[in-house]
């Protein structure tokens, strides 16, 4: 017998849960993060608007929704973070049982924030693990530069399938360049996750796009079905750059900044602007930084906090996408261990000796759904996503 319960809006189930709406306990559980960065408030306004609208609708929900507040102290102060970036510490520095005295992140405001978020997630998992069909996470953000909306995903087939529902560009494998993100932590737990970037921090349209994205997510997860007219209206809110292909992109270059006070982007860049090799993009320590490859500029740094100066991305070939989807479902990935320079470290990880395996290593392992991280000059670590 299907287990259901009357829908109810609950305010502050825990310190971190901003609100929740409960419906069919056998349906999916959607968890929304808002305000992981304290100067990105569009997502906070959007989730509160969705809560207010859901509360006034009589239709039953085929699932459950939770909104979790991110960096509460940084939101209070209106800054990106207080001590360290909350969206960069999820690979280390958040486990209360693994303290390292030399790691400054364990003494930070953000370390405590991450522990409280983790406790809320454990509370939600415990509450729904027996009944929920699946858990899906979305993380709402904005950018320091003007931008169209876009989606960030760890490159799994399940994430691709959900991301393709939205008429915006999708960036694959972002976690290989930006380490320690919350959504990478979620993916490592085995759940679907999507990051949504709505546009510039101070742009009122970023609130509208965040709201449209949330309603479409709720619709495509079939928690609450929208009318055809509503779907088209929300898609129109998102698709404001019809000349930009809403296809997949991957990172080709990542500029890491040692001291953001000594780094200055050339003014005027917007996300997805085309750049050519040799274009002057920024200044650092008084010298010019030129584009090392051609592509589209991505997430240029126009704020004084952060270590990610800019990235350069390129569109992914549809043929590559189809081939990778086929290979990931095939037995062929079992043959990777026999390639030269490949060493098996576990059932889901390989270490690659670049002195032996020199050509197309990242491309090959990306095809088979592996996350590729550089350990040192001669070694790559490849994890099965």
Structure description:
With 385 residues, the protein is of the alpha+beta class. Helix content is 26%, strand content 27%. The chain is built from nine helices and 19 strands. It has helices spanning 42-55, 72-77, 109-128, 157-163, 182-188, 204-220, 228-238, 318-328, 361-367, and strands spanning 8-11, 17-22, 29-34, 64-69, 135-143, 150-153, 170-172, 192-200, 248-256, 263-265, 274-275, 280-284, 287-290, 295-298, 308-315, 342-346, 349-353, 370-376, 379-384. Helix 1 (42-55) crosses helix 6. The radius of gyration is 21 Å and the shape is globular. Residues 1-7 and 93-101 have low confidence and may be disordered.
Can you say what the CATH homologous superfamily of the largest domain is? Zn peptidases
Count of distinct structural domains: 3
| CATH-derived architecture of the largest domain | 3-Layer(aba) Sandwich
The 3D shape can be described as globular
Q: Count every helix, treating DSSP H or I runs of 4 or more residues as helices.
A: 9
CATH class of the largest domain: Alpha Beta
Structural class: alpha+beta
What's the helical proportion of residues?
A: 25-40%
By DSSP, the count of extended strands is 19
